[in-house]
Automatic annotation (TrEMBL):
Domain of life assignment: Bacteria
The species this protein was found in: Neobacillus niacini
Organismal lineage: Bacteria, Bacillati, Bacillota, Bacilli, Bacillales
Protein name listed in UniProt: Uncharacterized protein
Length: 108
């Protein structure tokens, strides 16, 4: 089932939403494929978010031990003014507690 992930800066949490539920968490590890989705015509935020087709690939508040299986490759950056992401799709993302989003590679 398709899920949308975005940052709620007013509460400093990440929000995950699909047609069945909405949940907020401190951090997220997405272990599958993801896509940047943009809706610049929307009147309210968020106008840009990350989507995934498989909700079972979302890990809520992963432990630091679990994150040791991954290496940071780059940052996913959202330009709120121009409603754009620096990278449009990929595999493995870590949404950190501080609001930063990292593109990861799983170590062999």
């Amino acid at each position: 089932m398709k899920s949308k992930i975005h940052r709620c800066n007013c509460r400093k949490v990440w929000s995950i939403q699909n047609r069945k539920f909405k949940i907020t968490v401190q951090s997220i590890l997405l272990t599958g494929e993801w896509f940047a989705e943009l809706k610049p015509e929307r009147k309210c935020e968020p106008k840009g978010f990350v989507t995934t087709k498989k909700s079972q690939e979302i890990v809520y508040n992963p432990t630091s031990k679990y994150l040791e299986n991954f290496t940071i490759v780059d940052k996913l950056i959202y330009d709120k003014k121009n409603v754009n992401f620096n990278i449009k799709n990929g595999k493995c993302l870590y949404f950190a507690e501080d609001g930063t989003c990292y593109i990861l590679n799983k170590e062999a």
